[in-house]
Amino acid sequence: MPQRHQISPLLNMCAAVLIAAAPLVAGAAGQGAAQVSHAVAQTDRLIVKYKDDVDNSKGAMPARALDRARQAVIDRAGQTYGATLRALRATATGAHVFQLNRTMSLDEARQLAAEVKARDANVEYAEPDRIMVPLATPTDPSYTQQWDLYETTGGINAPAAWDKSTGAGVNVAVIDTGYRPHADLSGQIVQGYDFISTATVANDGGGRDTDASDPGDWTPAGSCGTGIPAADENSSWHGTHVSGTIAGKANNGLGIAGVAYNAKIVPARVLGRCGGYMSDIADAIVWASGGSVTGVPANANKARVLNLSLGGSGACDTTTQNAIDSARSRGAVVVVAAGNSNTDVVNSTPANCAGVISVAATNRAGGKASYSNYGSSVTIAAPGGDSGASILSTLNAGTTTPASDTYAWYMGTSMATPHVAGVVALMLSANPNLTPDDVAAKLKSTARPFPAACSGCGAGIVNASAAVNAALAAATTSVPTQNEVESNNYISRANAVNTAGTVVNGNISATNDNDYFVVQVPAGKTLTATLTEGSASDFDLYAYNSAGTQLALSTNGAGSSDAVSVANTATTTQARYIRVRYHAGSTGAYKLKLSW
Hints:
- It is a single chain.
- The protein has helices spanning 68-79, 106-119, 147-150, 158-162, 199-202, 238-247, 278-288, 318-329, 413-430, 436-446, 464-477, and strands at 14-15, 18-19, 42-50, 85-90, 96-105, 123-128, 171-176, 193-194, 264-269, 305-308, 310-313, 333-337, 348-349, 357-362, 380-383, 391-396, 405-411, 481-483, 495-496, 502-508, 514-521, 526-533, 537-544, 550-554, 562-567, 574-585, 588-595.
- By secondary structure, it is of the alpha/beta class.
- It has three domains: 42-128, Alpha-Beta Plaits; 143-448, CATH 3.40.50.200; 481-595, Jelly Rolls (Sandwich), CATH 2.60.120.380.
- Strands 8-9-7-10-12-14-15 form a seven-stranded parallel sheet, with helices on both faces.
- A hairpin with an 8-residue loop joins strand 16 and strand 17.
């Protein structure tokens, strides 16, 4: 049955979940542990294929030896990253394998590959020579019960995705009932906020505060208004279940694994007794994505993904639509449950709002879950469970108030939505430059066909591995670059960078050298600068406003990346200046990536 019922117009946002039965504790003992492997995120080789080299796998002559002119181009490309490349061998398909003099992260190696291709029009493709390992399979004792992650028929193909991305570096906001501390979420929760403005709904003795933990949302009969029955006299611990599906800790010997098990959860509490006000939910959407909310401290953990496993009936209201538009303007992807009424999603909000990824639920057979909403506004589907096979995740054992850790099987579009939010986190970890529209397009284009009937369920079942592949492909082909132009040793002579995601090719030529760059940061946006130098160089990174006031700095040691982030909380575009400064070690080339 529905975990939340429709209530008064002011309290019509409810968790989109159905409970399969009384919570079932996942067994941890006596189950065989699968072999585990971890994705390798670095390499010391590059593969380059020239257009005039032949594919000798078809019986043609081997690839011709690399001539001096091409090696010279390769050498110049390597110098921009403080690397040398030595021709090692030719592959069966005619490409050349180059040995690097140092190990690089895959992100840096992809940038070097793009540099090689940009410098030589005769390069057909260039890419890192990635190290493959057996597909990662978590050792968590209840992973074998998570059919939704790995089964061919109804699952999301997560193991193949984990070979390439685990969500590291991405924050996912769970806009829900809050969270309960849980051993399988240890280290996964960062500072959130309680947005419930009414003490009776909050059920924690007060209104808004910095404590996003869930005190319980049980609703005794009559507590939601005269004539309105109790939604449930037991607490749902709904946000904790959703959080486990997204980022449950993997390979820790406990319980389950999350879809993006190296992502972090930003809990934004908006649902309590009887549901939650849409005005509170809208504020949470803005805040979680890095926007400003009066009276609320700035979010130090800006989320790129917002999970809203909640909803009510009716058209999308202006307040919520404006909040979603605001979040999208800051690069956040908004993922919303389609609803559990087995009706057209056009009548379910916020799933019917513009710009969201609306998620329908499928069963273990890959067909539409009996309760799931449907319709032309649905973007994609994911496992939500149905009778006989639900979704296992983290929970609390308390009937009303909190008790001990446990696990339970729930079903609903609430459970489908975090599968998609987790996949989006994997995509953004692989390629942070994707826009919300990029993400939606790639999710749809890579979704796999439904193996069973699912009319009105969107483009297909979300395919984690294919979606991450699409994100990685975009990362290797669409990185804008520009070269530093001297003299830019002062703020007044700063090089302008106008395109988000640009990688600047710079050079520190002397120990007293400074390089300045200026970005016009739109209102509400956050500028992130990432500096990568050679292994023997120690350059530092600073950020300033237009008055020359230092806003941030990063002073990591030689060979380590530096990064700073500065937000424009004003209502107008503001100039922000980034400075690269010599500190110690060798002078030479660097890469500066500027995103906002």
